[in-house]
């Protein structure tokens, strides 16, 4: 055989092989990318498929993952649109709207984008950057369905519904304990506010109620999105994590903790009548215990001297102004920063959260980048929760959670796990329960003392001033409730403009000051412009009771 023929044959064969590989590569690229060339027009089921009125994604694009509660109840998923099968539409369980969970979960819209957890976990839900295998490429070539990751929340939807039902129910919202006052809120109104229930031993958020809420199923309805944007009560804000408020007397808990943990005071530290009723801030204002000096003094018939524990139970502003000034700004602010609360001039590590949130802050006024009046009137006022404090309900949950867990602050989170589906099955990634800073932030002895003081609030202090508003209940006050919750009321005054105060109740249950069982849940109720903090104690109590009776989350045996 002619040697030249062999060479020619081999060259032709090689050339055909190269052309075949090039053509095969182009064909594969068109199949996978739906484009004839790099960044070219979309071909398969796209705006160039012969119908100029359709703008469809490639039909091998992953279907957006679903969202479930902690028990596998589906809360959000994607379905083909009834009017245009070319696209998928996001669907939400009706309870996402009716139980005020929408501000946390958010929405996903091809028109308006994503919000809430839908935005935070967008890459996982959309199947972006999850890594492709040979099997994934094969499935793409064959146009087999591909899916984004599913996410499972720490939320229990049944507890969420119960908490939301209690939020404004007249059988849970008590009457205003102030003499001559009427209801805490008009039964016909829905005040903006929030409720958070958390497991202090893991940081898992079990319920997160935010009012006002909205219906994510209607986001793409004509005019609905614009209506929500125009609403002055800002329903898109997830108030538990993004609302910043004056904390009122609930923040006395931080001052008490600082005094106890630093050794500046003890629960049995005593104060005379003069010390408890009035305090002259050095080179500053005079602070008085106005409730005790009122025409109808609270508490009536109080005998002096009183202890610091009693001052906390009766919410005496004077004693906590004294404690803050007495320990000094450096010590007080040190404990404030331990909860991730920002302060000008310091790089305070934020306590993270896996949905949109705001960092709480103290001392917004600065001079050359440093907080001012750290040892004057502002420190005294901040010691009892006024002053320049902007605190989220989530931060107060963190404060209570660390107290419930002997100084261990677990980072709060609303996602339990993510689940990826592949041709080989499912891969689950659990979200770890993580300690903030990696260590306890104060001594367990101080935490135990604060829990004792919180039980005093519930058993004979401001938390005991209201009766159970549920006429069918077998107990009339927190002292006799099977929940055995300890807590602290907060009534944040907003100045002399006639505005109703911000209303707080922070709590933990059960309180080991009267039980042998460590706290299993913490709960914060916060409402805007809704009277006394004591009004909300049974909103929490009835929510705890539901969790106990139905063995939800940490109450499982």
Tags for this model:
21 strands; Beta-lactamase; alpha+beta; 6-stranded mixed beta sheet; 557 residues
CATH homology superfamily name of the domain at 154-214 and 237-414 and 435-557: DD-peptidase/beta-lactamase superfamily
Task: Please identify, by name, the CATH architecture of the domain at 154-214 and 237-414 and 435-557.
Answer: 3-Layer(aba) Sandwich
Strand order of the largest sheet: 3-2-1-6-17-18
Specify the helix fraction band: 25-40%
Instruction: Tally the beta strands.
Output: 21
Proportion of strand residues: 15-25%
CATH class of the domain at 154-214 and 237-414 and 435-557: Alpha Beta
Count of DSSP helices?
A: 19
Mean pLDDT: 87
In whole angstroms, the N-to-C terminal distance is 88 Å
Structural category: alpha+beta
Main beta-sheet strand count, sense and barrel state: 6 strands, mixed
Radius of gyration: 29 Å
Kindly report the CATH topology of the domain at 154-214 and 237-414 and 435-557: Beta-lactamase
Low-confidence stretches: 36-54, 131-135
Indicate the overall shape. Answer: elongated
Characterization of this structure:
This protein has a 6-stranded mixed beta sheet with strand order 3-2-1-6-17-18. Strands 8-7-21-20-19 form a 5-stranded antiparallel beta sheet, sandwiched between helices. Strands 4-5 form a two-stranded antiparallel sheet. Residues 36-54 and 131-135 have low confidence and may be disordered. The protein has a domain at 154-214 and 237-414 and 435-557: 3-Layer(aba) Sandwich (Beta-lactamase). Strand 14 and strand 15 (370-371) form a beta hairpin. The chain contains 19 helices and 21 strands. It has helices spanning 3-33, 94-98, 102-105, 117-120, 122-126, 134-141, 157-168, 224-230, 239-242, 252-261, 273-277, 290-293, 308-313, 317-327, 329-337, 377-383, 393-404, 444-459, 537-549, and strands at residues 67-68, 74-80, 88-92, 108-109, 113-114, 150-153, 193-198, 205-211, 270-271, 278-280, 286-288, 306-307, 361-362, 366-367, 370-371, 389-390, 415-422, 425-430, 486-492, 502-509, 521-527. By secondary structure, it is α+β, with helices and mostly antiparallel strands. The protein starts with a helix and ends in an 8-residue tail after the last helix. Helix 7 runs antiparallel to helix 19 (537-549), helix 10 crosses helix 14 (317-327) and helix 10 (252-261) crosses helix 15 (329-337).
């Amino acid at each position: 055989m002619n040697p030249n023929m062999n060479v020619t044959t081999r060259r032709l064969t090689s050339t055909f092989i190269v052309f075949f590989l090039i053509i095969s590569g182009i064909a594969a690229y068109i199949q996978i990318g739906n484009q004839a060339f790099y960044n070219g027009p979309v071909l398969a089921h796209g705006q160039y498929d012969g119908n100029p009125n359709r703008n469809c994604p490639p039909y091998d694009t992953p279907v957006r993952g679903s969202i479930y509660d902690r028990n596998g109840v589906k809360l959000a998923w994607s379905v083909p649109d009834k009017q245009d099968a070319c696209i998928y539409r996001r669907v939400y369980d009706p309870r996402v709207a009716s139980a005020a969970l929408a501000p946390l979960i958010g929405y996903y819209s091809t028109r308006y984008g994503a919000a809430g957890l839908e935005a935070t976990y967008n890459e996982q839900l959309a199947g972006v950057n999850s890594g492709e295998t040979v099997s994934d490429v094969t499935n793409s070539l064959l146009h087999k369905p591909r899916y984004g990751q599913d996410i499972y929340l720490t939320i229990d939807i049944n507890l969420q519904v119960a908490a939301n039902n209690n939020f404004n129910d007249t059988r849970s919202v008590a009457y205003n304990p102030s003499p001559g006052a009427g209801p805490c809120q008009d039964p016909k109104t829905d005040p903006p506010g929030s409720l958070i229930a958390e497991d202090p031993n893991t940081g898992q958020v079990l319920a997160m109620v935010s009012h006002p809420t909205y219906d994510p199923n209607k986001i793409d309805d004509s005019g609905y999105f614009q209506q929500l944007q125009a609403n002055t009560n800002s329903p898109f804000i997830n108030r538990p994590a993004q609302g910043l408020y004056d904390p009122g007397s609930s923040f006395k808990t931080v001052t008490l903790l600082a005094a106890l943990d630093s050794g500046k005071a003890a629960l049995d530290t005593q104060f005379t009548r003069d010390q408890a009723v009035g305090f002259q801030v050095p080179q500053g204002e005079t602070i008085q215990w106005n409730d005790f000096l009122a025409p109808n003094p609270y508490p009536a018939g109080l005998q002096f001297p009183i202890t610091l524990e009693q001052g906390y139970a009766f919410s005496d502003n004077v004693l906590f102004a004294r404690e803050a000034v007495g320990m000094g700004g450096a010590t007080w602010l040190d404990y404030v920063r331990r909860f991730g609360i920002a302060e000008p001039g310091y790089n305070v590590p934020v306590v993270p959260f896996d949905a949109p949130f705001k960092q709480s802050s103290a001392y917004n006024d600065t001079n050359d980048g440093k907080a001012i009046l750290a040892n004057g009137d502002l420190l005294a006022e901040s010691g009892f929760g006024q002053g320049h404090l902007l605190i989220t309900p989530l931060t107060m949950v963190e404060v209570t959670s660390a107290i419930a867990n002997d100084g261990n602050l677990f980072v709060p989170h609303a996602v339990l796990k993510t689940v990826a589906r592949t041709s080989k099955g499912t891969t689950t990634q659990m979200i770890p329960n993580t300690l903030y800073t990696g260590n306890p932030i104060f001594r367990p002895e101080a935490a135990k003392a604060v829990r004792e003081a919180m039980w005093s609030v519930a058993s004979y202090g401001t938390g005991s001033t209201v009766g159970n508003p549920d006429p069918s209940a077998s107990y009339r006050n927190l002292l006799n409730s099977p929940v055995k919750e300890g807590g602290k009321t907060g009534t944040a005054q907003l100045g002399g403009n006639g505005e109703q105060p911000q209303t707080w109740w922070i709590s933990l249950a059960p309180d080991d000051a009267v039980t042998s069982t460590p706290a299993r849940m913490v709960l914060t109720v916060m409402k805007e412009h809704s009277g006394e903090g004591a009004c909300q104690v049974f909103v929490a109590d009835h929510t705890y009771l539901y969790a106990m009776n139905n063995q939800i989350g940490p109450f499982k045996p």
